[in-house]
Amino acid sequence: MMATWIRVVVLVMACLVPASVDSKVRRYNFDVVTKNTTKLCSTKPIVTINGKFPGPTIIAREDDTLLITVNNHVDYNVTIHWHGVKQFRNGWADGTAYITQCPIQPGQSYVHNFMLTGQRGTLFYHAHIFWLRATLHGAIVILPKPGVSYPFPKPREEKVIVLAEWWKSDVEAVLNEALQTGLTPSRSDTQTINGYAKPTLSCPSERGYTLQVEPGRTYILRVINAALNEFIYFKIAGHNFTIVEVDASYTKPYNTDTVLIASGQTTNLLLTTNLGTGKFMISASPFKNKIIATGTLHYIGTSNDTATIVLTPIRPSEGASTPLVDNITDALRSLNSKEYPATVPLKIDHSLFFTIGLGMKSCPTCTIGIRVVAHINNITFDTPSTSLLQAHYFNIKGVYTDDFPANPPNKFDYTGIQPINPHTMHGTRVYRLPYNSTVQLVLQDTVRLALESHPMHLHGFSFYAIGSGLGNFDPVKDPKNFNLIDPVERNTVSVPAGGWLAIRFTANNPGVWFMHCHIEVHTSWGMTMALVVDNGNGPNESVLPPPPDLPKC
Ligand code: C2O
Ligand code: CU
Fold first, then answer.
1. Pick from 482, 496, 405, 491: which is nearest to 445 by CA?
2. Which residues, by Cβ under 5 Å, contact ligand 2, an ion?
């Protein structure tokens, strides 16, 4: 009965898809199921899509329409978010639990109907509820429109590389324990590269990821950091990379032997296989954590017993703002070509300044009487029980307030030794933007508890990262150095530890859009907020009506 009804919905929705000459409708079926999986010599059931870790890769073209049916067969509430897809006027398909939709309950299904308008490159999808994205994630590859080529030489082959992390214990239990005790959750037991940890003699099933290549070719590696809580350094012994795209936006070519990818970021690399023969270590190493995932780049024709050329993986101290981080972030430039212009807003309607950081709150039931909280402008976000987008669209009162402050309520020396940061307040507050207004947002790290970078991610948009620096942002001096010509365009940016980063965008996408740190533990602690972009007056400037199968709370 249910299945028939869903099929009818799919058919009706398929008919509503505007017919365009080139764009195709692609259908995917995502069954969320539990699957016993072995890693680090021990087996545990994990929540997967179609039994796979990482989940299946979605391959589409710019301007295609995707119809993805998510069927929830597990005991958890689930949502799936299409990270980096702008979902123009269509927040209903954004998949953010309690922000754009109520979760898909056990036994229920939801069809995500959306277009990949004006976007090409590598993105990914992941669960957007509690910590389920640890194992519920996969790649989205958006190829250029038919007949359009890459702005760089055509590679021989394309490879998707999904970096993630793995806990021996159940991830939801790790989160719940941390929230109850008020303490920091335990770190993962390993990183993974396409689901593999590293070759381990004691468990033959653990063979490590192998990338088979032909000599003398160029490959695209579409590298995704799907890890919950880690920045990851990616390296291949003996080889260099050229970065050509980040977060589904082309960049001017940038050469490097090491790539740092924050949680939530994607990076496309050109790899030239110019060494001809041999085996070379691939490493994915996080800050400080000693457990590094390793794999092997294997030239076809090299015998298996050839020794692998190893490398020393980088392991800088926790969250430090290393020269490498700053170099790559600052050095990347968007193409800003005739085909791919950079459209940085030059006149600003809304100038926002948000402090981000961690704080403490008293908690009598916690292990040491206090709990760690996180905040933006001193507000720790309380998750509502109905989605903000529904409250906005149907004008339901009492779900949120639209008084999120444009500036921190108390000014202090944000990056000083002993900043006096008043206790954080709680609230479900949003910042309201008129349709098509231009926004500058300076994100200022506050060094309260720990010195760490925060990879801030905005839904519904990509934005230009126009400048960054260490210490406190200086509103007089720093804007003089902003790059308003060809700044990199992203959906996730690392705010330097003990520093600031400025972004600009045009609020041309009506709806409710989550903004948060992509370090999942910081999201769990409340380092999140939402922007509400009002409808415009034109014919295509309002939020679309919700689909009939939108899940109910
Ligand atoms: Cu990749 Cu709000 O998330
Ligand atoms: Cu963070």
1. 496
2. 454, 517, 519, 522
